[in-house]
Each structure stands twice: as C-alpha cells, then as structure tokens.
Amino acid sequence: MIPIWVYLVAAGIIISAIMAVKTGKEERREEREGIESEGEIYMKRLEREKEERKSASRSLS
C-alpha cells in the first residue's frame, strides 16, 4: 500500500508543472506584445522621418 504523502508529492509536482507551463505562456505572450508595440513605435518614427525628408527636399527644390 502506498502512503498518502506519496500521492500528495505527486499532486504537488503535477500542479507545479501546470503552473510553470501556464506562466511560461503568459510571459511569451507579454513579451510578444511588447515587441509588437516597440515595432509599431519604430515604424511610426520611420514614417515621420520619411515625411520630414520629403518636406525638406521640397522646400530645397
């Protein structure tokens, strides 16, 4: 007969593994959202600089 503490330890290991997977997914999602946000900011800055160059070249012409 297996002692009850063995079941408790096994349950603890399983719960810990589930929580680790869940936390990992959440961290990857947050990291991806942060990268996407930074990319959008960068692209907006590039567009703004492009427009500034266009307007500067028009005023020089």
How would you characterize the overall build of this protein?
This protein has 61 residues and is an all-alpha fold. 93% of the residues lie in helices and 0% in strands. The radius of gyration is 27 Å and the shape is rod-shaped. The mean pLDDT is 94.
Features:
61 residues, mainly alpha, 1 helix, 93% helix, transmembrane helix, Spore_YhaL, membrane, transmembrane
Question: What is the secondary structure topology, with strand pairs?
Answer:
Elements: H1 4-60
Strand content: under 5%
User: What share of residues is helical?
Assistant: over 70%
Shape: rod-shaped
Secondary-structure element pattern, one letter each:
H
Structure, briefly:
This protein is mostly helical.
